[in-house]
Protein: Protein kinase family protein
Organism: Nocardiopsis codii
Amino acid sequence: MSTFLIEPGAKLANRYRLDQVVSETGGATRWKATDETLARPVAVWTFTEGFPRTSEVVRAARATSRIPDARVTQVFDADDTTPVPYVVEEWVIGSSLADLLSQGPMEPERAAGLVAEAAEAIAAAHAGGLHHLCLTPSKLMWSSGGAVKVTGIGVDAALLGANVADPGAVDAQGLGNLLYAALTGHWPGGPQSGLPGAPQGTAGPYPPGQIRQGVTEPLNTITTRAALPHLAGQMVPGPPITTPADFCAAMAEVPRLIPLPVSPVESSPPPEPGTSRRTGELDTTGSGPRRSARNGNGTRGATTSHSASAPRAERSAPSRMDQRAARSRTSPRRILIGVVAVVLFAAVVVGAWGLGSMMQPGEDPATPSADSTDDAANEAAEATALEIVDSRGLNPHGDTDEHSARSPLAWDGQTGTAWNTQGYQDPLDIIKPGVGLQLQLGASHEIHAVDLDLGGEGYEFEIRVGDADGNSEDDYEVVASGSGGSQEVVLDEPANGQYVLVWFTTLPQNGGDYRGSVNEVEVRGTE
């Protein structure tokens, strides 16, 4: 059956309703469609009868679905055995880089944050044997849920039949072009996606630092080495960047900001003015991440512990009142039974009190008393903040780094910045045992409490402590656990160690992904 005979309203696999044509590419048509089984929008590719690369596109789509990075557009279904072959992908709601640049170039640190996220996704694809080869401003999306998405990985190259000798160099240059566009509002290869071509000199497009003031020297150098490799070593120091992995390594040391969401995310409040989340911010003196006062007066802002059980208690209160009213209408026989029960209860209490008095000198140390709980709280209150000297993300059950470059943002003294996990398409507990943020104290300390300022609610986590720099959560001892949102976690008993691991086993849903963030963390204890 020909794609051109398919009209809006047609249904594939008895579930995907084709709503409207989005684009056509030489015999392949992209539709905005509806998955009627799950009641969600999807993107669907269909192909004309005789389209020569249908099988290649379906194979590429299936391979793309196995890339372990949530920034890669998810593939839901692909089938080339039906009368109308198709590929079903995630429909990303948000703004493309071209949309974001319609108002002009981005701030350098924000441009770096957006493209660095895309580079990590492309590098993950290359590690899985897939490439993009067609990177343009329309392929880089900033979703309304606050996540970076790269569309077309694997599928675009198969659609066009692209076959190049060095795909790593092609995608590295594509990433450089995206960064060039974000910094300058121009595309170095000529007009593209509504952007004008870059101004030309005798050696080709000018480096971005010559087009726009305010582009930092590191960003100018990285962009030129990737997008304009023939100028590397001439107009900027260093060799050409020829792989996405090399591009990621170069960007790891560059201060960068995550772009602002296209629309507010209901599950988390917007950043305070001037305190949008930063990623990879390093001290230019080389002495480590910058630390600053907690707020304007140098004191730490109060954190609130949220209880998920409070609403349930309020809902159940009327039923308990009804029960008390019913008990007030008891019969004389029930009253007599009640009197006997009271007498027996009093006898039990007296006996227990006597037995307790006899055993008091030798109480079971395994059962914490109210006094011991109070002692732990008092010790935690008297403990001081311990210095954190380094940190990293911990992802022992995955192939990608858990944003270690951003981890210092969780203890930089600024609640408007944050370390965040990767975004996951499915709940964390069905993907892996967990992910974590490891904090290094430099020396072993007696740890009494951990204060967590988290982004939103819906977390489940453990506090783990150890003296070895382990790469698995099993290398650390569980000393406390918690759930909900921001809170002070007081250890029942102090724990000794120089490494503290905040280990997340459940993450909240943020837009279309499951993602967690730590705005600020403080470890309190004694030397």
In short: Confidence is low (pLDDT under 50) at residues 261-337, 355-370.
